[in-house]
Design goal:
Helices cover 57% and strands 6% of the residues. The protein is mainly alpha-helical. Helix 6 packs across helix 7. It is globular and about 45 Å long.
Length: 221
């Protein structure tokens, strides 16, 4: 049953995000990904051409259908990123190459996975949005500190990143602009250049624009 759900998630990802490079799907019964925090709700990982999904969580429990669907959508979107940008996960997040901020790499995969799952009646997006807001309230770090690889296995890229991507897409070009961003990385010396070209504003200005929204969440507005 879990493998059928994984296949459904893959098909939904292709339908929603477009076809990436050929992807090998590996389903594992034993959870052995020690680096990712459990409360991100993700049960897998991806790199160019491969997605690994665990059919048991860290406690040995079978995940729900919606959790597996979200996992597949999240990891499949990473492959879309790799395919459009012509890079691997290491290239996207390595500090030396400065290609893309972690909050955008993980936040976009997280946001689009949940948005797509909700649009197909697997879960309530409002419930997820409130959950991400509660998580983000506990994190006061500036956006610039969620750009580097050192934060990739912490919660911030998945919660603050989720909210930042939602705000960015709603205000500055939607999923079309996001797709252009991954494509523009190929020809940009810095990810900041690709950001401005794709979304129409400097990333520093975006941070300044997004910060009051974050502040209002903390104040409960």
């Amino acid at each position: 049953k879990e493998r059928e759900t994984i296949q459904k998630g893959l098909e939904l990802g292709i339908k929603s995000f477009g076809k990436a490079e050929p992807v090998q799907i590996v389903a594992k019964d034993k959870f052995d990904f020690a680096y990712r925090k459990v409360d991100t709700g993700i049960l897998g990982w991806a790199d160019a051409g491969q997605i690994v999904v665990f059919t048991n969580d860290e406690t040995g429990k079978r995940p729900s259908e919606s959790r597996l669907i979200v996992t597949m959508l999240h990891e499949y979107y990473h492959n879309v990123q790799f395919s459009l940008a012509g890079v691997s996960l290491l290239d996207l997040t390595t500090e030396s190459k400065n290609i893309a901020p972690v909050w955008l790499v993980e936040g976009s995969a997280e946001y689009l996975a949940y948005r797509t799952a909700a649009d197909n009646n697997y879960l309530s997006f409002d419930t997820i949005q409130r959950q991400k807001q509660r998580e983000a309230i506990r994190m006061s770090m500036p956006m610039t500190s969620i750009e580097r690889t050192s934060q990739i296995y912490e919660d911030a890229p998945y919660s603050v990143g989720f909210l930042a991507v939602g705000y960015l897409l709603n205000k500055h070009g939607g999923q079309t602009a996001l797709t252009k961003y991954w494509q523009n990385l190929k020809d940009s010396a810095k990810w900041q250049d690709a950001f401005q070209k794709s979304f129409g504003l400097d990333v520093t200005k975006f941070y300044a624009e997004f910060e009051p929204y974050r502040r209002n969440l903390i104040l409960g507005k």
